[in-house]
Amino acid sequence: MLFHSLEFLLFFPAVCLCYFIIPHKVRYLFLLACSYFFYMCWNPEYALLMLTSTVITYASGLLIASAEKLEDERRRLRRKKLYVALSFTSNLLILFFFKYYGFAAATLTKLLGSFGVGVSIPAFDVILPVGISFYTFQALSYTMDVYRREIYAERNFFKYALFVSFFPQLVAGPIERSKNLLIQINEKHRFEFERVRSGLLLMLYGYFQKVVLSEYLGMVVDSVYNSFAERTGFQLLVATVCFALQIYCDFGSYSNIAIGAARVMGFRLMENFNTPYFAVSVADFWRRWHISLSTWFRDYLYIPLGGNRKGKLRKWFNLMVVFAVSGLWHGASWHFVIWGVMNGAYQVLGEWLKPLREKVMAFFHVDKTAFSHRLGQMLTTFALVDLSWIFFRAESFTQGLSILKTILGRGADYWFTWGNNLEAMGLTLATRNLLLVSLLILFVVDLCKYNGIRLISWLTKQGLWFRWLVYYAAIFGILIFGVYGPGYDASAFIYFQF
């Protein structure tokens, strides 16, 4: 059930209406049933996988809590580590089989073949369960939080099951922490007009990002990347920039709709994007992009590896490991790993060259607070991040190299006019102009957020006539210009494949 489908537009209001009507003490059971129904609309059988992950991590929490009662400290710590290891191993094995088995088998076969060893590894034709990476990481964070005594083990299985399966953020995040979401399940949420209005406005902006911006940008990207061998360097460059904006709008839209939907019902989900393309460094970008995943890797992988506590070389090694794993998390293919390694290498090189940069800026008396300096940092960061997006969007590492070679190696075609190139990429004059206006809106919204201006709060303080003029303009603008409806194959959110 996609957020931008008619089914969800009927499902969500019905859930909210019933949620606020039924007694508080049974609301979590109702939401749990709705969440499993929401997930089963994709593939009912795979709900059993989510239930299995839920049972394992729930049991691990109880076992860790029971181990806390042991008086012998060494025995207590050994038991706790054992239960954590069993929880992580079993969950990651499930994730490996459904997401990485085929990739591992193909890689191993190719590696052994290069040494003249012919093997036949059995293949399994399985469909990747929607959202498996997200709910697995969310469940595993609960195990670690109980181990670290950051939260008490949840005794009520159904409340814990709701934490794992909460439908607004189930399929593509944000990846919530138990110390944030789980404790909210016990809160009594009342209907509050201001909160509901704020949530609906955030959802409305998410729909604009998805059915207008992401879909039109996707037309350009798909048209060019699906026939990359026949495209000019300029077309590939434009398509790559469009993909950077598309994936931001697509994933940002899901997060905004999820956060807004949860807010309507009284739940507070963590922010997942904070104007990432205003970042002044790649490290800053990753503090702003997919925040729930970045902080998950920081807390549950980077810090346990040693973080930055064991010197620069160890810190850089830890960074490279984290970003290589992050790339693999995104997809079972080497081009995703390369994408992750590139983002890790950017940060390592950035830190290594920092003393040199400081000396150069001091020599030329560069004002670090100047607008031009920060703008240069932002453009450089965007260029580096966008370069790595080539390998994220490409279907293979080889294809990514070919696209990059074309962009860098064919200078003459950069003199083609902007209009002709966009028309060759499947955009009419009307859709081109619509896309430019929509991108301007995106820029203004992000610029306001970057400068601490809360547009929803500002809007709700305006006069009644002005507010409703904006509401109607936004709703009808999405209905008129959005890409959806009969005859249109509604595209799933990009991050559903992860």
Q: What overall form do the CA principal axes indicate?
A: globular
Unreliable stretches covering 5 or more consecutive residues: none
Count of the separate structural domains: 3
Total beta-strand segments: 0
Derived from helix and strand composition plus strand pairing, the structural class reads mainly alpha
Largest sheet geometry: none
- Determine the mean pLDDT: 88
Residues in β-strands, percent: under 5%
Q: Which percent range fits the helix content?
A: 55-70%
Walk me through the structure.
The chain has 498 residues and is mainly α. The chain has 3 domains: 15-190, no CATH class; 191-267 and 394-498, no CATH class; 274-377, no CATH class. The chain has helices at residues 6-21, 27-40, 47-67, 73-114, 132-147, 157-165, 178-184, 193-225, 233-264, 282-288, 291-302, 312-330, 334-352, 354-363, 371-393, 397-409, 418-424, 429-450, 455-460, 464-481.
Which secondary structure elements does this structure contain, and how are they paired or packed?
Layout (H helix, E strand, L loop, with lengths): L5 H16 L5 H14 L6 H21 L5 H42 L17 H16 L9 H9 L12 H7 L8 H33 L7 H32 L17 H7 L2 H12 L9 H19 L3 H19 L1 H10 L7 H23 L3 H13 L8 H7 L4 H22 L4 H6 L3 H18 L17
Helix pairs in contact: 2-6, 3-4, 3-5, 3-6, 4-5, 8-9, 8-18, 8-20, 9-15, 9-16, 11-12, 12-13, 13-15, 15-16
List the main descriptive attributes of the protein structure presented here.
498 residues, mainly alpha, 3 domains, 20 helices, 69% helix
